[in-house]
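S.,

Sequence below, as promised.
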Amino acid sequence: MNVRAFLILLVLLQGRKARAQGPQITAVWPPGGPVGSKVEARIEGGNLAAVSTVWVGGSGVSAKMGAPAKEGNIVPVTLEIAKDASPGAREVRVISPKGGSNPGYVWVGSLP
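The prediction came back faster than expected:
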């Protein structure tokens, strides 16, 4: 790219506003629970104030979302782990109008 084209591009892009970031997960606490349990947990991260959906991959685990914290860094969730859920990790993501998050993980354990 020649210098002139680069300068034109730079001038055109200076007037644009930065796009808002989507939600980010840094932790899920507690990170899971035993088979057949109901766990009160929280998803921690950034840009979580507008989260509308919590998605859990795989089978045997569902999540009900509480109201996100006003600071936008915590989303309370209730994890319901089925009696027939197989032990192991499940991917968790949150969805907001700005997009989907990076994955977080919850673990299904076989011991109480």
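The longest strand covers residues 38-46.

Coffee later?
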